[in-house]
């Protein structure tokens, strides 16, 4: 290679590197995790290769059959951010199956935020149940129907989570909020790093309690698909959760993410009026006294 060729190649390389850096800078500024990040970068399979199928770094299938449930989880833990995943649910006959996507810390006083997709017989709608545990206390189930068929395409299910509010989102629609009401004595998830988990399992026993149809192995294997493995959140490094609490300048802490805006409140109310099928807040058999956070979390007092 002579000097001119070398110089020409160097120029090409510089242009390439500049473009690459520009792309990376753009990606770092993106506000959701639709950036192609490989599964292996942030996650590990926790069941065998026939049940957690890593098809390529960007697409993973969980496979439930008579032999095993299926799962994967993150390598590390996070505190605050917008944490979500693209999920396409088990198509056809999925009754009795539960596809779970959840964030959880370990231990008895753990924090946890759950999406649980409850399968149904062919042609009938999935139920999406969400729950929140703060300092080990859960029992805050809400269940909605979705306004689309979640088995046809990937949809992005996520939690926008900061020290003011936790918003459960389906694509960009808020379906639930859990606000920081520590001042009123309601525990909030703001000091524990959570791992990110996905699983597909036989929920027949649990589901049948509510009178739903059991899982039928004739229709196995049951397969749910996952994508979007980037994590737009604060990673807890060496157990230092405080670093995520005091971290300044991350987009999810900005004032516009500390509460819902008027459009989001309207969207949340539409979910509440049109799609809500169970809410612990109105289950007076379970909770004769309405939990203190309920009115605040549906934003009724703000209107
Ligand atoms: C996966 O399934 C194949 C075919 O049934 C079997 O040979 C193999 O041992 C299985 N692998 C694991 C990791 O279970
Ligand atoms: C299954 O569909 C039936 C009929 O539409 C509905 O009543 C039931 O709630 C659905 N099951 C779940 C788990 O959502
Ligand atoms: C499972 O589905 C098959 C095929 O539709 C049906 O013949 C069978 O009766 C079902 N089994 C149960 C336990 O419902
Ligand atoms: C978010 O929390 C901080 C600290 O408690 C508080 O100063 C701020 O007013 C809250 N933001 C909103 C929109 O309530």
UniProtKB/TrEMBL annotation:
PTM statement from Swiss-Prot or TrEMBL:
Contains at least one intrachain disulfide bond essential for its enzymatic activity.
Q: Which UniProt keywords apply?
A: Apoplast, Cell wall, Cell wall biogenesis/degradation, Disulfide bond, Glycosidase, Hydrolase, Secreted, Signal, Transferase
Family annotation (InterPro entries): Beta-glucanase-like, Beta-glucanase/XTH, ConA-like_dom_sf, XET_C, XTH
- Record's keyword annotation contains Translocase: no
According to the entry, every stretch annotated as the GH16 domain falls at 25-226
This entry's Enzyme Commission designation comes to 2.4.1.207
Identification of the protein by name: Xyloglucan endotransglucosylase/hydrolase
Provide the species name: Sphagnum troendelagicum
Q: What is the lineage of its organism?
A: Eukaryota, Viridiplantae, Streptophyta, Embryophyta, Bryophyta
């Amino acid at each position: 290679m002579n000097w001119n060729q070398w110089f020409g190649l160097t120029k090409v390389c510089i242009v390439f590197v500049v473009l690459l850096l520009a792309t990376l800078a753009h990606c770092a500024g993106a506000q959701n995790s639709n950036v192609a990040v490989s599964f292996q970068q942030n996650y590990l399979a926790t069941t065998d290769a026939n049940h957690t199928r890593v098809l390529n770094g960007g697409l993973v299938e969980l496979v439930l059959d008579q032999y095993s449930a299926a799962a994967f989880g993150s390598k590390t833990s996070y505190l605050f951010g917008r944490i979500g995943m693209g999920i396409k649910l088990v198509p056809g006959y999925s009754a009795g199956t539960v596809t779970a996507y959840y964030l959880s810390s370990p231990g008895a006083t753990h924090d946890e935020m759950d999406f649980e997709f409850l399968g149904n017989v062919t042609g009938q709608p999935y139920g999406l149940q969400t729950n929140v545990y703060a300092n080990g206390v859960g029992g805050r189930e809400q269940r909605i129907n979705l306004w689309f068929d979640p088995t046809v395409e990937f949809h992005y299910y996520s939690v926008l989570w900061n020290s003011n509010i936790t918003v459960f989102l389906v694509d960009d629609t808020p379906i639930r909020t859990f606000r920081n009401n520590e001042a009123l004595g309601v525990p909030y998830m703001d000091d524990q790093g959570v791992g990110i988990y996905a699983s597909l399992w036989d929920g027949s026993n649990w589901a049948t309690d509510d009178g739903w149809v059991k899982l039928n192995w004739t229709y196995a294997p049951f397969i749910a698909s996952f994508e979007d493995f980037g994590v737009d959140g604060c990673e807890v490094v060496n157990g230092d959760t405080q670093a995520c609490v005091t971290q300044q300048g991350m987009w999810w802490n900005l004032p516009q993410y500390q509460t819902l805006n008027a459009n989001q409140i309207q969207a949340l109310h539409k979910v509440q009026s049109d799609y809500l099928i169970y809410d612990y807040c109105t289950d007076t058999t379970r909770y004769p006294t309405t939990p203190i956070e309920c009115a605040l979390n549906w934003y009724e007092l703000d209107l």
